[in-house]
Amino acid sequence: MASRRRQSTRALRRIESLSREEQDVIAAQIMETLDDEEAWARNFRERPALLRSLAREALEEHRLGETRPLDELIG
Questions:
Q1: Three-class SS of residue 29?
Q2: What element of type H or E holds 40?
Q3: What is the pLDDT of residues 24-65, one digit of tens each?
């Protein structure tokens, strides 16, 4: 936890060194990400069948060889 706090502090210091416009852009990106995460969590909480359906679909795609290892995509 302390490591995350240090990382957050470093990130905030860097953001504070930017222009007001750049800070606003970063703030908007952060807010959009948080809103998206909240929406996904709410959807899965309110519609657990949706998560099950997506999981089944992903497993079927994997079974059919339609997926690639994550390392290939982000490596």
A1: helix
A2: helix 20-46
A3: 999 999 999 999 999 999 998 999 998 899 999 999 999 999
Q: Output the CA torsion sign for 13, 32, 43, 74.
A: negative
Alpha-carbon distance 40 to 31, whole Å? 14
CA distances from 32 to 28, 52, 53 (A): 6, 26, 26
User: How would DSSP label each residue in 16-28?
Assistant: HTS-HHHHHHHHH
**Tokens standing for 41?**
């969590």
CA distance 59 to 53: 10
Contact 52, 45 (CB under 8 A): no
Q: Which two tokens stand for residue 71?
A: 């390392």
Q: pTM for the complete prediction?
A: 0.62
For 55, the 3-state DSSP assignment is helix
